[in-house]
Design goal:
Layout lengths: L1 H21 L2 E9 L2 H8 L4 H4 L2 E6 L2 E6 L5 H12 L6 E5 L3
Antiparallel strand pairs: 1-3, 1-4, 2-3
């Protein structure tokens, strides 16, 4: 009986972890600036359609730029070279949507 219970617990944990991995979201981390106004000037170099996908937030005196989260990592891989034209250090990163 113990063996079945342990198997069921292990199976449940594996199932939950696979669900968590399947719902992974990705974003392109673009830049961190100390002055939001300078960051906005750089973001304004993007065409309007691409600029709509860029979001910012401020934390501890720095402003962070990133793209809208998506589950489609392949799309971000295609767009990454375009983002890198303005932000050379841009990279794809897993993220959580709050």
């Amino acid at each position: 009986m113990k063996r079945f219970s342990m198997f069921r617990t292990l199976f449940t944990l594996m199932l939950l972890s696979s669900i968590a991995l399947a719902s992974q979201n990705y974003t392109v981390r673009l830049a961190v600036y100390k002055h939001a106004s300078k960051l906005q000037k750089v973001i304004d170099k993007y065409p309007p359609a691409l600029k709509e996908t860029v979001k910012t937030y401020t934390s501890k005196g720095h402003t962070y730029a990133y793209t809208l989260p998506t589950k489609n990592k392949a799309t971000l891989k295609k767009l990454l070279p375009t983002y890198k034209k303005v932000f050379k250090d841009a990279y794809i990163s897993p993220t959580r949507i709050k």
